[in-house]
């Protein structure tokens, strides 16, 4: 089974208008997520890189000018049985047309929310340091620049390793992790408002959950979380 960690950098966040400027992937053994093979490409997007995007990954037009187009190098990154990314919905927005809309993905961000719900953050870099990966795979600091595709792949590989270990401890299978990765992010802590911000969803008043679901203008994912926790509490007293 080929497990491939993938990361991309782009000109922006809209797959319909923006383009990939860098892509990297790292193959890992399913059992321990140890990197076995990696590849990285700068990509000429065919459009200018806005300053707001460069401020994130520090790539500018001169860095990608004359580099291959995505279609020329994408074959090197596709063909895995399972793709892994942190916040995989972002990668999928750009890569589903190339990898296939039925490709299997595991999102380490959404898995981390479920496995460690009480952590103060679930970003890739937070989880890296939380689990002690200061120098993942003995790589020097200049090879681990955040928001560069290959560096982020190595960090995600470390997080993926912890996800696999913790899931095994909790009796959760990889197919279950994949299924959870296709659902909205399951947050355990309320992150908005004043009255209940910082409280757990499973402890706030039920009528507050009802308000979120039925009367608020909250986004789909927030309503989904409230609905999930309301259903869990209903099962607990049934």
Structure description:
This protein is of the alpha/beta class and 238 residues long. The protein has two domains: 3-181, Nucleotidyltransferase, domain 5; 184-238, no CATH class. 41% of the residues lie in helices and 13% in strands. It has helices at residues 51-57, 61-64, 70-73, 88-99, 108-115, 124-130, 149-169, 174-181, 206-214, 220-237, and strands at 3-10, 20-28, 35-42, 82-85, 105-107. A five-stranded mixed sheet has the order 3-2-1-4-5, with helices on both faces. The termini are far apart.
What is the CATH superfamily of the largest domain?
Ribonuclease H-like superfamily/Ribonuclease H
Strand content: 5-15%
Name of the CATH first level of the largest domain? Alpha Beta
The CATH topology of the largest domain corresponds to Nucleotidyltransferase, domain 5
Shape: globular
> What number is the mean pLDDT?
94
CATH architectural name of the largest domain:
2-Layer Sandwich
Name the structural class: alpha/beta
